[in-house]
Write a structure and sequence with these properties.
- The protein has 352 residues and is mainly beta.
- It has one domain.
- The protein is built from one helix and 23 strands.
- A hairpin with a 2-residue loop joins strand 4 and strand 5.
- It starts with 8 loop residues before the first strand and ends in a 9-residue tail after the last strand.
């Protein structure tokens, strides 16, 4: 039986269905919440941070549908009264993996200071039908499909202050509920997911003096999610279990530090990850065993708190929430796209 294999994708969502098969009625196209990404990658290692702003309105329609109509105040975009089903960040995973390796090492704020030995991982066989498996913040999961393997350690997942949460999600915030899940909408598409529920319920509560879209509290403008992700090749004849368990051990030993600071009235969230970047079975020269790779991201958590500031997508826009990105202490300077060492061709102008 041939099954589709989806890309491993991070999707902030408000419909609890991040697979791109539900169309927003006003535009008749799939939609998701804005990423507001803070990503830095070196070869096979990615430090990924996102921060959902529930006050965003995108693409000319009222994506923020967290309050029922009528919609106060009068300047707010039109709303059909349909509520959010939830606020989630999902990492789409391939069902074709068959099994997941799970190393549960939760700790306060999902951050472990310095190397720690990996616990014996659980091998979780993916059920044939819908399922939910609870995991804790700080858990590392890994999988293999074909000649590739990947592991990810979830170190931050904020729960909305408007909802209930347990533990801490990062910087002292309440932690979102975390699951590995398969559902009746994703599994037929060959997809399962790791999902963080930042908020569950029909409407986010407003507060009396709220000035954001539909009265959503400012505390819900940056619901954070953070993951450290590492990939490896599985050469022909290699022991896949050895490769996957080595990935788990590498991420378990990684040092992840996260801190909030205040600068010029803005709250900054800085994250640094230090780990051995080498692949379990070297195939592409990703670093000598024992070397250390340092990845850092700093983002502004107070730069987007209203309708005027909802396009903060990169370091090169005036609505900028991304403060810095570094690899081994050197700033990442965006440049022209290259493919296999060659400059990518220019995008042709649109036809009239």
């Amino acid at each position: 039986m041939v099954r589709p294999v989806p890309e491993i994708t991070v999707v902030p969502d408000y419909l609890d269905c991040p697979y791109g098969h539900i169309h927003e009625p006003n535009t008749d196209k799939p939609s998701h919440l804005a990423y507001h990404p803070g990503m830095v990658q070196h070869r096979n290692v990615l430090l990924a941070t996102t921060a959902i702003n529930v006050q965003d309105t995108l693409d000319g329609f009222a994506l923020n549908v967290s309050q029922p109509k009528p919609v106060p105040p009068a300047w707010a975009p039109a709303n059909d009264g349909a509520p959010w089903n939830s606020v989630t960040t999902s990492v789409i995973l391939p069902l074709a993996a068959g099994s997941l390796w799970i190393s549960a090492q939760p700790s306060r704020a999902g951050v472990r200071q310095g190397p720690t030995p990996a616990n014996a991982p659980e091998v979780f066989k993916i059920p044939a039908g819908p399922f939910n498996k609870t995991i804790q913040l700080g858990t590392t999961i890994a999988l293999r499909v074909g000649k590739g393997a990947v592991a990810m350690r979830i170190f931050a997942a904020d729960a909305s202050p408007s909802g209930a949460g347990t533990g801490t999600g990062g910087g002292g915030a309440a932690a979102a509920a975390l699951y590995i899940a398969g559902d009746d909408r994703g599994m037929p598409l060959g997809a399962i997911r790791l999902v963080a529920y930042h908020f569950r319920g029909r409407y986010m509560p407003a507060h009396v003096d709220a000035h954001g879209a539909y009265g959503v509290p400012d505390e819900d403008t940056h619901l954070r999610f953070g993951a450290l992700i590492k990939a490896a090749a599985v050469p022909d004849g290699a022991d896949e279990t050895r490769v996957v368990e080595a990935l788990l051990a590498s991420l378990a030993a990684a040092e992840i530090s996260a801190a909030e600071t205040v600068s010029d009235g803005s709250k900054l969230w800085g994250v640094t990850a230090r780990l051995d970047p080498s692949e379990p079975i070297p195939t592409r020269g990703t670093g000598a065993p024992g070397s250390t790779l340092s990845l850092s991201v700093t983002r502004n958590l107070t730069c987007s708190s209203g309708l005027a500031d909802n396009h903060n997508q990169s370091i090169h826009t005036r609505w900028n929430c991304l403060v810095s990105r570094e690899v081994n202490g050197e700033a990442v300077v965006p440049g022209l796209l290259t493919i296999n060492g060659e400059l990518a061709p220019a995008i042709p102008p649109h036809l009239p």
